[in-house]
Amino acid sequence: MSTDEPRWLGPEEEETWLAMVTLLVRFPAALDTQLQRDAGLSHFEYQVLSGLSMTPGRTLRMSVLAEFAACSLSRLSHTAKRLEGKGWLHRTPDPEDGRYTLAVLTDEGMAKVEAAAPGHVAEVRRLLFDPLTRAQYGQLKSISRRVNDAIGPLRGCPSHPAP
C-alpha cells in the first residue's frame, strides 16, 4: 500500500474537470434526444451504423466496432441483434478467421444513416461548432487527441486508422 499523498486537483483543475465531466454527460444525452426524436435511433445505434458506413465494404469485425463504439462486445452484440431485426446490418463469420464475426451494414442500414445524418450533423453543429471560434476548433481537436492518446491506442476504427 502506497503512503504517497494523492495529487489532489487545485481549484482551476477542479473547475476544468467539473466542466468536462458535465459536458461528457450532457452532450451525448442531447445527441441521443435529437436522434431519438428525428430518426428513431439512439446515439449508440447511430454510432454503430455510421461507424460501419465509413469503412471499406461497410464491414468491420465486431471487436473493432466495439472499440470504435467504446462498448463491450456483449452490448454491441445486443445492439447488433436489434439492428439485424430492422434489416440495417447483418453478422457473418469472418472468412479470414472464423473465430471472428463481421458486422456488415446493409443497403437499408446505409439509407437509415443517410436519412439520419443531416439532422445529426445540424445538432452537432448547433451544440459544438456554432458556440466556438475557428481557433477553438483547433484547440478542441488538439486537446481531444492528446486526451485520447493518454487513454491509449484505438486502432482500425474509422476515425483512427491503423498506423
TrEMBL record:
Q: What Gene3D superfamilies is this protein classified in?
A: Winged helix-like DNA-binding domain superfamily/Winged helix DNA-binding domain
**A UniProt-annotated Pfam family:** MarR
| Alphabetical list of SUPFAM superfamilies matching this protein | Winged helix' DNA-binding domain
**Entry's InterPro entries?**
HTH_MarR-typ (IPR000835), MarR/SlyA-like (IPR039422), WH-like_DNA-bd_sf (IPR036388), WH_DNA-bd_sf (IPR036390)
Q: Where is the HTH marR-type domain?
A: 17-149
Q: What is this protein called?
A: MarR family winged helix-turn-helix transcriptional regulator
What domain of life does the native source organism fall in? Bacteria
The record's section on PANTHER family has:
MARR FAMILY REGULATORY PROTEIN, TRANSCRIPTIONAL REGULATOR, MARR FAMILY
